[in-house]
Amino acid sequence: MKRSALLLTLGSALALTSALVVAQDAPESLLPPGFDKPRAAPKQAPAAPVTVTKGSTSSGSSSVSVPVVQQVPGAAAGSAAPGLPPGVRVPTLQELERMSPEELDELLGLKPRSDMPPAARRSLKQVGVLADYEGGLPAGALANQSGALVRAALDGNKGQLVSRWGHILLRRALASRLDAPQGMNPADFAASRAALLVRMGEGEVARAVVQDVDAGNFTDSLTRAALDAYAFTADITGICPVIAVQGGARKDAEWRVLRTVCQAFQGDGAAAMAQLDRMQGGKVWPEIDMLLAQKYAGAAGKSRRAVTIEWDGVSVMTPWRYAFTIATGLEPPAALMRNAPDRYAYAAALAPMVPLTTRASGADKAAAAGILSSAAMVDLYSQIYAQEDITGEWADRAGLLRTAYTGETPKDRMAAIAQLWDGASDPRTRYSRLVLTAYAAARMPVEDGFAGQSADLVAAMLAAGLDANALRWTPQAEVGSLTWAQLTLASPVRGNLVASGALESFYSDDASDNYRKSRFLLAGLAGLGRVDQAVAANFAAKLEIDLNRQTRWTRLISQAADVNNPALVCFLAGVGMQGDGWDKMTSVHLYHIVSALNRVGLSAEARMIAAEAVARG
Fold it and tell me: Can you tell me the distance from the alpha carbon of 108 to that of 213, in angstroms, rounded to the nearest whole number?
C-alpha cells in the first residue's frame, strides 16, 4: 500500500510537471476559478479628509486593476518536481516501478539518518566491547598517541601470528573500549580494529566491535569492515540496519545484491526476487553467487521457488560465497575447500550451522591459532560424543578424549592423551591437540612414570594458561630439560637468576633447527630479567645473535614501554609476531616483545608467549 501511494504521488508530480511545460504556450491561467482575482484589501479606518488643490489628479479615478499572474516554472530537465528535494531528477514511471521502498525513501529524502532513537544513540568517545574492569586495556591509553602510528600498526598487520598467546593478547587489545588516537576518526579507528580482527579469523569479535557504533556514524572504511565481519560470520541479514541507513553510500554489485536480500527479509519478497532475477540476467554477480543469494532470499518469502546450486566450473571460494552457502544449510564441496585459506576453517569452527565434524576439522587449526579455548574444544568434542550418528575417526577421537578425563587409572588417561597427540598429522594440529587435552593434563599426577611426557604435559597446560598446575612439575623437572625451560619462563616468581651451566645443558640437548629453542630461551629469560647480563651476552655470542640490535620497530616498542602504554605495546607486538610458523620469529623480536610486555604490566602474557616459543620453536 505504501509503495502504491508513493508511486501515485510521484506519478502525479510527473504529470503536473508535464502540464506546466505545456502551459508556457497557453494564455489561460492554471489557477482554479476565482483564484486569479485579487484578494479584497482589508477594511481600514476612514482616513482624514484630504484637501485637493487645483492642478492635482485623483489616482483613484484612473487606476486600473492589474491581475496577479503566477510564474510558471521552466522545463529544465534537472528541475525537481513538487514534493522532491531540490536538484533531484524526476524518474520515469518505469524507473519508479523498479524502485524498492528504500530507494523511494531515499529519492524523497525520507531515508533515516540513524537506526537508533535520539535517546539511545551512543557516543563515539570510546568504542569497543571490553571495558578495563572486564579485562580490557585502559581506555585512555591511545588518546595522546599519533593516529598515523596506530593506523600503520593496525593496517600493516596481515593477521596471521606465530603465537597462540600473542593472538589472544592482540584480540584482547583490539576488543577493548578505547579512545581514538589523535587525528583519527573514532569510526575509522573501529574500522581498522575490526578489519584486523577479521584477518585474524576473529569474525565474531569484529562484528561485536562494528555493532558498538551506530549505523548513522559509519564511515566508508567502517562499512567495508562491517561487510567483511558479517560475511565471515555468515550473518547476512545483520548488515541490513547499516544498509537501511547507508543505502546510497555504495553502488557496487555486492552492495546492490545485499540491499535486495535485505528487502526480501523486510517483507517485500516478490519484488526482491524479481530484482535478483534482473541482476542475474545482467551478470551483476557470478552465476553461483546469484543462485545462492536467490536461495537465501527465497527463504524470507512465499515464492516457494526451488533454486538448484551447481558447483561445476567453480574453482575458488570467496567470503560471501561461503557465507551464503552455509547460511542456506549447504556444505561447500570438499574439493573446493581443500586448498582454501585458513579463514574458512576458522569460520567453520565457530559457525553453529555447520556439521560438527566440519567444525572439529576447523578447530584443529583454530585452537592452535588462539581462536578457540581449551574449554571450547572440549565442549565441541562432547557434542560429537553425544551424537550417536557420528562414527569413524571423529567419534573415536571423542571417545579418547573422554578416556583422557575419566580413565580408571592415570596410566589409562595418559595413554589416551598420548594417542590424541600422536594422531596429529602436522605440528600445528599436534599443538591443537595439546590445547584440547590441557585440562586432562592438569589432572595427571606428578609421578616419575610420566617424566617422559612431562614436557608435553606442561606445554598443554601452559597452552590453556594453567601455569599453577604446570608448576607442580617443577620438582620433577631436570635442569636443562625442555620441561625445566618452560617452567622457568612460565613461573610468576622470578627466583634465582639462571646460571650459565643450565643454559649450556639445554643447548647441548637442543635438536631444533639452528638451535632455535636455545635462542628463544635466552630471549625470553633476558626479556623477563631472569638471566645475568654477562651470562646472556656470552650465551648470545655462542648462538651468534645480538639481542641489542636496533630497528625502527624495536625503538618504537621500547618507547611505548618507556611511557607505560600497554595498548600501543600490544599493537606493535602484533606487528612483530606476524608469520605462519615459529621459524619466522627472530630472537631479537621475541626479546623486545617479552621485555615490553613485562614492563607495562602484562607479565602473565609475556611469560606465556616466552614459554610457548620454547615449546614450539
Answer: 26
- Looking up cell 591437540 gives 433
Across 233-246, b (16+ Cβ under 10 Å) vs e yields bbbbbbbbbbbbbb
Query: Distance of CA 506 to CAs 292, 517, 519, 545, 614, Å?
Result: 57, 9, 11, 17, 11
Which whole-number Å values give the CA distances from 184 to 124, 142, 157, 173, 178, in the listed order? 12, 11, 18, 17, 12
Spacing of C-alpha 242 from chain mean position: 15
For 68, the 3-state DSSP assignment is: coil
pTM, to two decimals? 0.82
Element (H, E) at 127: strand 126-127
Computed on alpha carbons and rounded to an integer, the radius of gyration of the chain in Å comes to: 35
For the residues of 531-575, what is the DSSP string, one character each? B-HHHHHHHHHHHT--TT---HHHHHHHHHHHTT-HHHHHHHHHH
Q: Whose CA is closest to 195, among 211, 209, 212?
A: 209
| The C-alpha cell that represents 190 in the structure block | 573501529
* Sign of the dihedral defined by the CA atoms of residues 477, 478, 480, 481, in that order: negative
List pLDDT tens digits, range 274-298. 999 999 988 889 999 999 999 999 8
Confirm if 470 and 462 have CB atoms less than 8 A apart: yes
Kindly report the number of other CB atoms within 10 A of residue 476's CB atom.
16
H or E segment to which residue 179 belongs = strand 178-179
What is the C-alpha separation between 101 and 551, in angstroms, rounded?
Answer: 57
How far CA 583 is from CA of 367, 371, 487, 544, 592, in Å, comes to 19, 21, 22, 16, 17
DSSP-assigned beta bridge partners for residue 77: none
The whole-angstrom separation of Cα 294 and Cα 236 is 13
DSSP strands (E only) in 523-594: none
Helix (H) or strand (E) holding 178: strand 178-179
* Domain boundaries of the chain, sorted by first residue: 165-354, 355-473, 477-617
Q: Which residues pair with 161 in a beta bridge?
A: 578
Query: What is the amino acid identity at position 460?
Result: A
Q: Which one-letter amino acid corresponds to residue 468?
A: A
Asked if residues 190 and 184 have their Cβ atoms less than 8 Å apart, the reply is: no
**Amino acid identity for residue 293 in this structure:** A
Answer yes or no: are the C-beta atoms of 178 and 127 closer than 8 Å. Answer: yes
**Residue 523 · residue 594 · CB < 8 Å:** yes
- 273 and 303 in contact (C-beta within 8 Å)? yes
Amino acid letter, 451: A
Phi, psi of 235 (to 5 degrees): -95, 75
Q: According to the model, what pLDDT value does residue 114 have? A: 61
Say whether 126 sits in a helix, a strand or coil: strand
| Residue pLDDT, tens place only, 430-472 | 999 999 999 999 999 999 999 999 999 999 999 999 999 999 9
Q: What share of the chain is helix, strand, coil (3-state, %, to 5)?
A: 60, 0, 40
